[in-house]
Amino acid sequence: MKTLPEMFTTVAKQNASRTAIVNVERAVSYAVLEKRITSLAAKLYDMGVRQGERVAILLPNGLDFVRSYFAIVNLGAIVVPLNDHYQENELLYFLEECGVSLLITSRDFAELSHRVISVRQFPCKLFVVEDWVEDLEEEVGLLGDFKIEVYPDSPVMYQFSSGSTGRPKRIARTHANLLFELDSFIQTLSITNEDRFLGVAPFSHVNGLMRSMMASIRAGATLYPLPKFERRTVAEAIEKYRISIFIAVPFMFSMLAQTTFNRRPDFSSLHLCVSASAPMPKKLNQEFYNNFGIYVRQLYGSTETGTISVNLYSNIEESLESVGTPIRGVEVEVFTEEGKVANVGEIGEFAVKSPAAIMGYEGLDEVNKEVFRNGYFLTGDLGRRDKDGILYLVGRKKFFINKGGYKINPHEIEELLESHPKVHEVVVIGVPTSYGDERVKAVIVPNTSCTEEEIIEYCRGKIADFKIPSVLEFKDSLPKSPTGKIRRKMLMYE
Amino acid sequence: MKKSTHLEIEEKIKHILVSKFEIKPTIHDEISSNTPLLGRGIGLDSIEVLALVTAIEKEFNIEIGDDDLTLDLVKNIGTLAEYVLQKTRD
Known about the structure:
By secondary structure, chain A is an alpha/beta fold.
């Protein structure tokens, strides 16, 4: 299997009658899912989607997301998954940056989508899933005669990462990258087609997409997607459907652990709880265990490399803070600031070598020279390795803010705020909360008298609500180094 | 457990906002029952509201169902307090 379409065809053949997805209580087998994907692909082809074109998906987790993803991929087009919290500015940015020619969405987002498309520089069609009257047999028949060649090194999707250098960079991972990661992930975690995945981490983000949606399909397992995180709905689903694998973010585990349930839900079916996208505090992990009888295993990854490591240790309670050891086929090295390999226990920067990783950012040679060296990708994350090779993250060189499992790039918010006429200078930082998350704090040097309300109102509608600063501080000046660089760390630890 | 009044519940919610969410302690004087929780006003976002609801459940030993968790419920401290009052009376 060298491409995702080949992978899906093979898995569907091996598991034809098995349930692929349970969507709103309806079970869809792999055979039916394959047919529905082909039907949608035919429709998209009829709308003009061709190989290499970019098609965005603005949908919540569910059958429509899954079939849209594979329909696009089957046509050799490139998926641009969009966060359904995004507002107009953000959507416009991604549509323009990726040159999207078609946006697939639902009625809930149709009005917003129309607004965004209407101001786009280049034409972009809109496909609203509920408005399509599907004739399954006809659509499948239309595509039957076409053979679309898809290559292992062709890009599958565009994602964005700020890496360690601040500005968002477009990343294209290939069929080969993704298939390697999926195979390695499945094998390392011993996932089989008997497993039942809860898909609540957003599919628009790499964690939900690769480790729930795609992993479930690759294994021939059953996926139970949920469109949003509601604590009791999640708990009920785990119990009702006897979910065996729950991959989410620390915030979700934290909320479940802290929720008052009249009757404690039965999570005994779970054999794997995995947390990714942000560090999981030990205290919260212990709280989750005390409530539900299973520890959460931390996973470490990046948009550029995919999954890097996971903690599968049997004596997990003694290594809760660890992110484990690299998954099969992935190498991790720890480099000091001088570029030497760090000693055991010595803190350095994690560098990753993996067939699942990109080779570089498109068109950014100078940046690539900084972050790709001798086949390694320099993650910007600081950590150490103990004598048993177990990895521990201790911090990061980059200053991302972890909010509800989402990674917020402070530079994006700083740029927006700097455009406010009353803002002279601004720094945006993350402030830890007591529930294992971070709040967005903006420290502003105003030009003239300025209120918090003015700042917040300025952000509203331009960026997702979880990015809007919830803590604001006004200062006369920002701490700076002798060279004029803002000392962000000083503000973080004030 | 002694049943709280609406006002007492509001004060406890304000206390949670100050202690868990680092909202300014001066909210006790600055905001009213009708000050919006989301967006303008107190300025919580959708992720923080979930954390607030979870904290309220714990504080008052009640269960807030997913179906009850609507925008109307989390409109302001007053609406939340009213809900808690009803729940604690049941």
